[in-house]
Amino acid sequence: MGGTRTAAELDQEAAVRRALEDFYRDGRPPWDSGVTPPELVALTEGPDALAPGQALELGCGTGTNAVHLARHGWRVAAVDLVERAVRQAREKAAAAGADVTVLCGDATRLDEVGVPGPYDLFFDLSCYCGIPPHRRDAYAAGLTKRAAPGARLLMFGYGPEAFDDPISGVTADELIARFAGWRLADVTPGTNPVPTFWFTLHRAATA
Ligand SMILES: C[S@@+](CC[C@H](N)C(=O)[O-])C[C@H]1O[C@@H](n2cnc3c(N)ncnc32)[C@H](O)[C@@H]1O
């Protein structure tokens, strides 16, 4: 999937990967709060909780939210690009006694990762918004291929204004354009000082 990549695209992917690896090498990355956001808690607890099924987390970092899902009855696979993050996520799951399959791989190349699905829930906490634009169609196609009828994608992302670089960030219009066969059901602004959003997308209930 994705065809021939240009040298510039390869450079961009390598630069993003290096930057992410540096964050994990330097210790605890700034985003690693260790706290599950209320937007995900609302899907796992209380009156609006979903019936647990199969979940896939994209860009799971050190696994806080994958563990949360598993503790709430979900069968969870979680993927991250950075080996060091994956090791920490596995340790966190083991320490919590949570049954989570944590895999090192690229969320835009899921065919290479071994996550066949189908999944009822996809969760992405600021992974997609950092993915280079030329890989984003492949990300959407990978989820669409693995989505159970009526599947849900809960995604948190930074708006493009939040970044100095021209490749990062996500908008509602972009998701509508890229996720064919999905419906953007909700966009709720985040509470960060820069523009952030919680996006909820639903896959059609019939294929
Ligand atoms: C901003 S961090 C958020 C991590 C985690 N979701 C959290 O909130 O703690 C983005 C994560 O996505 C991962 N990531 C970025 N691009 C990825 C890709 N193409 N495939 C898989 N993981 C990716 C990074 O390694 C990093 O762990």
TrEMBL record:
InterPro entries: Methyltransf_25, SAM-dependent_MTases_sf, TPMT. Pfam families: Methyltransf_25 (PF13649). Keywords: Methyltransferase, S-adenosyl-L-methionine, Transferase. One of its GO terms (biological process) is methylation. GO terms for molecular function: S-adenosylmethionine-dependent methyltransferase activity. Residues 56-145 form the Methyltransferase domain. Transmembrane segments: none annotated. It comes from the Bacteria. CDD domains: AdoMet_MTases. This is Methyltransferase domain-containing protein.
